[in-house]
Amino acid sequence: SDLYDTYLEMRDRKIVWIFGIIVGLVLLAIAATNDIEDKFQFQQNGDVDASELNDIFGNPILSAFSVFIPVLVFLAIMGSAGIIPRLIERGRAEYFFSKPITRQSLLFSKMFGIWIVYGGMVLAATFILYLAIGLFHGIYETSVLQLAGLSFVSVLLWQVISTFFGVLSGSTGTVMMTLFLIWVAEKILDAREIFKQLVDSRAVDFIVDAFYYLVPKMAAIGDTFFTLAAGKEVQDWVPLWSTALVVLSLLFLTRML
Predict the structure, then answer these.
(1) What are phi and psi of 187, to 5 degrees?
(2) Contact 148/126 with Cβ under 8 angstroms?
(3) Which terminus in the chain has less CB density within 10 A, N or C?
(4) What pLDDT digit, counting tens, does each position of 118-152 carry?
(5) Is the pLDDT of residue 95 over 80?
């Protein structure tokens, strides 16, 4: 029921059409492209080995999807940002909470329903484009499917964050602004070492490091997932485990609200 209701809400808000238009445009580009390479083509030049350059730059198809899939995830999260606030608004909340089900169960059921429906839309869009590249160009890059599966986890992490702030504020605008500020904060904290050198204060170092561990690092997690999908060794697991701890904490706090 929650899955179907979430799908109907997504359809009514034309989110499906937005995804459909984006996928349709990319399908046209794939069909119109004469040739797609599964390797970067480099000229052999002196001591530079083309295979080494490919190791550095990676698979071009996977690299393209590593940019495209986060856009779909962003649209899914922003498109679903208002569902939880509308669920708990006065009148509607009284109707739902009058049912023989606890408030926490209702919220979590809705949250996971949003994850499945919107995350499933991201998976479906990715799979359609994956098949299109295979049909038109004969390239079936399975690492793209691995990246899509890992990105499904990203949708869940974002959705927990969105649900917490949706319950806390009850405002769609606040949720969207908070999600944007999290993204901005991560970008700023990427340069934390430079900032710490400029200020040269132990107190500031402690505060900056604390914020680094507390702010979800979704872009960095995307890089980690890309590395895993490419079959390479992950050098830094901090973004993943620190974000997972923050998300678990928000999940617990959501039950307390």
Answers:
(1) -65, -40
(2) yes
(3) N
(4) 999 999 999 999 999 999 988 888 999 999 999 99
(5) no
